[in-house]
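FORM 12-B: Structure-to-Sequence Request
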């Protein structure tokens, strides 16, 4: 054998990169194998951390634990890699009606939401280029991860550690032997799939209740929109700097191609025109498949029959917020035998 990593990680997306980071922190030898697919959901994702979910204005699942942990983790990695990719940015939820405003005012006084509400703004307190005639609410403990910049920095780090190869692991190349798994010239004690939508194409985990969803986003140039917020009203408008903004996202459960569509572009443009009073130019249009799950809980842990095989997948739209916490949990499970949360343990569905 050329190398004997303790753990092989399939996929250098958000999940795979963070799992690699925490395993290396535990002193484990690892190898990340990535196919270099540029339209992975991690690379297309906006990477927004949003503490409040949906029309019912519910606090995001485990937000009190996941958000501080994620922020601390990304800051730690930024320092270690001398890179910048995590940004604390408030979210401006634009009110859609008087009733919507009243609902927010009532909820913002409640203890579970109050820690995430900065202030409620009247229309005249919001820039004229933002269409908010009823005002909006500013949320804190929010922000975004430049996922592409993060993955690029992590790839360089893993290459420096001799812990990265580009390639695709095929099922018929995986050989199970006593206490080890072999793939080509490598052998390991665990092989963990962090490959997003691709997990549905191999039989080890393809019976899991994934509900893959196609998402499309636009990147626009808008010189007149001066916003220090992530705007949200059905779709988001994320400031990238230099008058560039990412706008998204759509959901499509039927079309699972990575081809962009005119329908999605038109929907996003119409939604954007309701939110801003400024001309814009479309710079880019991207599509990817999100590995969402039926119960909106990720899959974490090891196969009950093929015990060397693990999975860290199903992060959906909250991946940037959830991935650090559960990457460390899986790393500690591997390194020290610590337990996994029952709500996310993959054995609940296998």
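FORM 12-B RESPONSE
SEQUENCE OUT:
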């Amino acid at each position: 054998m050329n190398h004997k990593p303790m753990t092989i990680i399939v996929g250098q997306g958000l999940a795979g990169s963070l799992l690699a980071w925490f395993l290396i922190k535990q002193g484990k030898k690892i190898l990340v194998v990535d196919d270099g697919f540029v339209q992975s959901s991690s690379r297309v994702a906006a990477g927004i951390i949003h503490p409040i979910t949906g029309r019912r204005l519910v606090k995001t699942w485990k937000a009190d634990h996941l958000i501080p942990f994620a922020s601390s983790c990304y800051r730690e990695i930024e320092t270690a890699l001398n890179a910048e990719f995590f940004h604390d940015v408030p979210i401006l939820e634009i009110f859609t009606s008087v009733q919507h405003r009243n609902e927010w005012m009532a909820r913002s006084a409640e203890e579970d939401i109050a820690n995430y509400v900065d202030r409620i703004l009247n229309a005249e307190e919001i820039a004229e280029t933002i269409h908010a005639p009823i005002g909006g609410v500013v949320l804190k403990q929010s922000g975004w991860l430049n996922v592409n910049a993060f993955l690029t920095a992590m790839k360089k780090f893993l290459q420096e550690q001799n812990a990265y190869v580009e390639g695709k692991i095929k099922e018929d190349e995986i050989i199970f032997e006593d206490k080890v798994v072999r793939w080509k010239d490598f052998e390991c004690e665990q092989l963990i799939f962090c490959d997003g939508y691709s997990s549905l194409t191999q039989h080890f985990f393809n019976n899991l209740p994934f509900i893959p969803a196609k998402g499309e986003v636009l990147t626009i140039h808008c010189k007149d929109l001066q916003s220090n917020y992530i705007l949200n009203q059905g779709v988001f408008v994320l400031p990238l700097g230099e008058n560039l903004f990412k706008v998204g996202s759509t959901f499509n459960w039927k079309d699972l191609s990575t081809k962009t569509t005119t329908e999605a572009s038109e929907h996003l443009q119409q939604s954007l025109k309701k939110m801003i009073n400024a001309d814009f130019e479309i710079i880019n249009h991207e599509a990817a498949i999100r590995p969402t799950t039926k119960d909106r809980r990720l899959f974490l842990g090891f196969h009950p029959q093929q015990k060397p095989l693990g999975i860290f997948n199903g992060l959906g739209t909250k991946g940037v917020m959830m991935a650090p916490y559960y990457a460390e949990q899986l790393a500690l499970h591997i390194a020290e035998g610590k337990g996994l949360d029952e709500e996310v343990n993959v054995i609940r569905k296998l």
